[in-house]
Amino acid sequence: MTRRVRRLLGGGLSALLVAACAGEPEPVRPKPAAVAELRFAVVAPASTDPALAGDPESVSLAQLTSTPLTSLDPETSLAGPGLARSWTVDAAQQVFRFRLDPRRRFVTGRVVTATDVKASLERVVAPATRSPLADLLKEVDGYAAARATGGPLSGITAVAPDRLEIRIARPDATFPISLGHPGLGVVAPAVEVPGGFLGTGPYAVETATPEGWRLRRVRGRGARRITVAKVVDAATARAAVLARGADVTLVDRSAGTEFPPRVRAIASPYVAVSNYAMNLRNPKFANADFRAAILHALDETTLVRTVLGPTVGVARGVIPETVSGHADRACARVCDHDPAAARAALARAYPSGGAPSISVDFDATPAQAQLAALVVQQLASVGITASPRPHDPAGYDDFLANETPDLFRLGWVAADPSAEAFLLPVFASGAPENVARLSSPASDLLLVAASREGDDEERAALYRRAERAVLDQRAVKPLVQYRTRYLLGRDVRGLVVDALGGAFSGYPGLAVR
Q1: Distance CA 481, CA 274 (A)
Q2: What is the mean predicted confidence (pLDDT) over 288-316?
Q3: pLDDT band with cut points at 50, 70 and 90 for residue 35
Q4: Is the dihedral of CA 401, 324, 74, 98 positive or negative?
Q5: Rounded to whole angstroms, how far apart are CA atoms 207 and 176?
Q6: Cβ–Cβ contacts within 10 Å for residue 401, how many?
Q7: CB within 8 Å of 477: residues ≥ 6 apart
Q8: Is pLDDT above 60 for 25?
Q9: What is 32-66+201-262+490-513's CATH superfamily?
Q10: Fewer CB within a 10 Å sphere, N or C end of the chain?
Q11: Quick check: 335 and 471 in contact, CB under 8 A?
Q12: Coil, helix or strand at residue 465
């Protein structure tokens, strides 16, 4: 007998057994009923078209109206069955063959075919769609031509009504994760229906007005209808939930963490992080001990909690928590806050003194200015002279790419929740977004090996080693793990926020009153 069962028998359950033996009727608790209507207040979405789902609210709508080839586990972000019930991949991790689930249908009841999937993915890539998600398919053969002309993707073939083949230009075992983005949910054009397309999700768009949308459940469990109301700002949306005029809304950092008992917040790490980094082509940072001193001087917990508060997470690595390959303390011993180690490293680097003064480069927003000021203070506490150097946010990316920053704020929003999306574009040698100019043969080789590894656990282990090889260069200080938060009315249960910020992972059917 487990300890948990013993506790139950020793408490409330034993009392019920005694009451039953005494002849008293056991209380009957009614089962929760499905919500007749779930009310979702949104600010950002201008459309229910999944191809335009570039923010968490739009991702949530896409989860309701369409289904992609794969689905993503909200805890690990690994790919599982979606419209495709199974798939195989060749040894090179470049040819993916999907078998569609024959039970999957459009909202009209028509079975989804491989031709439908091909057309829907090509629609995302077509320039006329203006989808912010097109680059999720950039590795598919023929992408450049299709992106330029709106023509077909040569790398996608409808082999049979229920079989689809996708060929990509380089090995990438994480490609099914990209295909699981709700914005790649399969739709078919249909001008006679609200929204202009037929979806494949659990809900159909019933009406569409400038004020919002009304969705009707066509399959699965859950609210029979979902009303999506567009409001002017986040404060109005939050007030609607507090006044019971709405059941669900996204909340930003300004909302704080304290809410009345009649509401509650749920959150999950988002595919966005913020680090401090050093440009390794800058002569000031040629000495590895000097870089180590800077990393150990910075107290990430104090920086994050003082400036950003408890609504975001403190990052301990560059791979987020809900992404396969994440390590709880990836930066252990390399960039942990340790003032004594910082002073010792500075003494090794410059035993006679004379350490260079540095600038702290950042995009000039109030929060980043406050962070930079605290960074300057923390560096001074171990003997490193620094000064803040703000930049116009509109030109900050160009500055990092084309100039020579010192210690700088490095933010990153990944296209999909894979470890590769956080490592390859930002830290691989010669990658366009590698503005820290890191170069690690060890990390590069591990990234290549991971991209060819078909086993999920083995691949995650390789990404952890690649992350460590990046951090071992002592040029990156993980700082912030951003989170997506939703405010829920007290009667709403069962909603799950995933790494892309969607609140309706799987069926949203567990919302109850």
Answers
A1: 7
A2: 96
A3: low
A4: positive
A5: 33
A6: 12
A7: 275, 276, 277, 294, 295, 298, 300, 331, 335
A8: no
A9: Periplasmic binding protein-like II (3.40.190.10)
A10: N
A11: yes
A12: helix
Say whether 188 sits in a helix, a strand or coil: strand
Q: Which fold is adopted by the domain 269-483?
A: Dipeptide-binding Protein; domain 3 (3.10.105)
Residue 248 pairs in a beta bridge with: 40, 488
Eight-state DSSP code of residue 305: H
Beta bridge partners of 276: 409, 477
Of 421, 470, 183, 252, nearest in space to 320 by CA: 421
CB 420 within 8 A of CB 450: yes
300 contact partners, CB below 8 Å, separation of at least 6: 314, 315, 316, 337, 477, 478, 479
Q: 130 vs 51, 473, 494, CA distance in Å?
A: 8, 39, 33
H-helix or E-strand spanning residue 228: strand 225-230
- Closest to 421 in 3D by CA, of 231, 249, 172, 230: 172
Q: Which residues of 6-40 are buried (b: 16+ CB within 10 A; e: fewer)?
A: eeeeeeeeeeeeeeeeeeeeeeeeeeeebbeebbb
Distance of alpha carbon 265 from alpha carbon 474, whole angstroms: 37
pLDDT at 64 over 60: yes
pLDDT digits 0-9 by tens, 165-211: 999 999 999 999 999 999 999 999 886 788 788 999 999 999 999 99
What homologous superfamily does CATH list for 68-187?
Dipeptide-binding Protein; Domain 1 (3.90.76.10)
State how far the Cα of 258 lies from the Cα of 311, in Å rounded to an integer: 11
d(CA 278, CA 477): 9
Model confidence pLDDT, tens digit, residues 247-273: 999 998 888 888 888 899 999 999 999
CA dihedral 104, 323, 59, 425 (to 10 degrees): -110
- Summarize pLDDT for 405-450 with one digit per residue, the tens: 999 999 999 999 999 999 999 999 999 999 999 999 999 999 999 9
Contact between 271 and 417 (Cβ < 8 Å): yes
- Rounded Cα distance between 507 and 67, Å, is 11
Give start-end residues of each CATH 3.40.190.10 domain in the chain: 32-66+201-262+490-513
Mean pLDDT of 73-100: 96
Q: 């590894």: which residue's tokens?
A: 453
What token pair was written down for 503? 């609140």
Beta bridge mates, 215? 205, 226
Residue ranges, CATH 3.90.76.10, the chain = 68-187
Number of residues that this document lists for the chain: 513
For residues 453 and 161, give the distance between their C-alpha atoms in angstroms, rounded to a whole number. Answer: 29
453-470 burial code (b ≥16 CB/10 A, e <16):
beeeeebbbbbbbbbbbb
Single out the residue of 313, 310, 314, 303 nearest to residue 370, CA to CA.
303
User: Any bridge partners for residue 124, and if so which?
Assistant: none
Q: Model pTM?
A: 0.89
